[in-house]
Every structure is written in structure tokens, then in C-alpha cells.
Design brief:
single chain, alpha+beta, five-stranded mixed beta sheet, 5 helices, disordered N terminus, binds magnesium ion
Length: 197
């Protein structure tokens, strides 16, 4: 079947150069500056010595070390929660946890670090910021953290007031290298993202 030809009275399609400038689409353009959410990132690090005769608390969970070791410190020495607190404070340039919970203050002796985390979160929220997500990696040769990760994430998420899927907790060994590799201590690195709507 032949192509229909342009009949009399039907204009051929104009070449693109002959087209008038397209009208701007009807999009509402904000009159003032565009309001973007403000974001802040923070990072935290902590390490505590492994010693006999102390409990091993990570992410608020009590773990058993095969060598009978636990973390030494003024509070419960929960390096994971301490690194997170420093990341939260760092995101807003509020200093570090030593400023708020000094180790020479008897109030914090044996303190539950999750309770201290609640105080840091309150500080962040008072300034109008909310936590978008956090991510942490614990550096420990032993014990295996995998069976405890879910409980750690749940405990931290509850204190941060966010969903568990926004709380990353990972574990790695240090391949026998350095102080963590020799099991002289357990360390943790953490990052947080904050948002101000
Ligand atoms: Mg610490």
C-alpha cells in the first residue's frame, strides 16, 4: 500500500529550524531560594583494651570472649556505641564524648553506654537534626560477632529512633595485625549522616 501523500491544502511538516521556540512547560518555579535538606556527616573511632575480669559489651549486648576477656574502661567500654556517639557529636562539631562524659566523673563509672547514646541523640535532636543512617565496623579477632549483630542493630536503632535498616553494624578481624590483631583491644569505626529538614 502506497504511503499517503500530502494532499492539497495539507502543509508539509515544517523543518525544525522553522518551528517557533517551544513554550516553556508550565512548571511552578519557586520564587525564593530552593529549600534543600541540610546534611551533615560525622565520623567516630574508639578502641578499648581487652583485659581479664571485665565484661565484653558491644552494641549493648553482653558477649562471651573465648579467652575470658572483656573491655576495660570507665563506663561499660562499649566501643561500638562510643564510636557512634563521637560520630554524632562530630557531625555537628559538638566535640567528643570525653567532653560530655569525662572519665574522671564518677557519674559515668560503669555507665550503660546505650543510655549515654540516648543523651547524645537528645542533644542532636534539640538542635533540629535527625539521624538519616549510621554505619559502623567493629575490629575484633574474637569472638564471632555475627550471631549478635541483629540484636546490636535493634538496640542502637531504638536509641536513635530510626528503623533497623538504617543501622549498619559490621565486623572484621584485623588478620592478626596490630593491637586489635593481637587481641590487645577491640576497636570500632563509625559514620553517621544527619539531616535538617
Ligand atoms: Mg571509649
Amino acid at each position: 500500500m502506497p504511503e499517503p501523500s500530502t494532499g492539497p491544502g495539507e502543509a508539509a511538516a515544517p523543518s525544525p529550524s522553522a518551528l517557533p521556540a517551544a513554550a516553556a512547560p508550565a512548571v511552578a518555579v519557586p520564587s525564593g531560594p530552593v529549600q534543600m535538606p541540610q546534611l551533615r556527616i560525622g565520623n567516630g573511632y574508639d578502641i578499648h583494651r581487652l583485659v581479664p575480669g571485665r565484661a565484653l559489651i558491644l552494641g549493648g549486648q553482653r558477649l562471651e570472649h573465648p579467652g575470658g576477656l572483656g573491655l576495660d574502661g570507665h563506663s561499660d567500654a562499649d566501643v561500638l556505641v562510643h564510636a557512634l556517639m563521637d560520630a554524632l557529636l562530630g557531625a555537628l562539631s559538638l566535640g567528643d564524648i570525653g567532653r560530655y562524659f569525662p572519665p574522671d566523673d564518677l557519674r559515668w563509672k560503669g555507665a550503660d553506654s546505650l543510655a549515654l547514646l540516648e543523651q547524645v541523640v537528645a542533644l542532636v535532636q534539640q538542635r533540629g537534626w535527625t539521624v538519616v543512617n549510621v554505619d559502623a565496623v567493629v575490629v575484633a579477632e574474637r569472638p564471632k560477632l555475627r550471631p549478635h549483630i541483629a540484636a546490636m542493630r535493634a538496640a542502637i536503632a531504638a536509641r536513635l529512633g530510626i528503623e533497623e535498616e538504617r543501622v549498619g553494624v559490621k565486623a572484621t578481624t584485623n588478620e592478626g595485625l596490630g593491637p586489635t590483631g593481637r587481641e590487645e583491644g577491640i576497636a570500632c569505626h563509625a559514620v553517621v549522616l544527619l539531616q535538617q529538614p
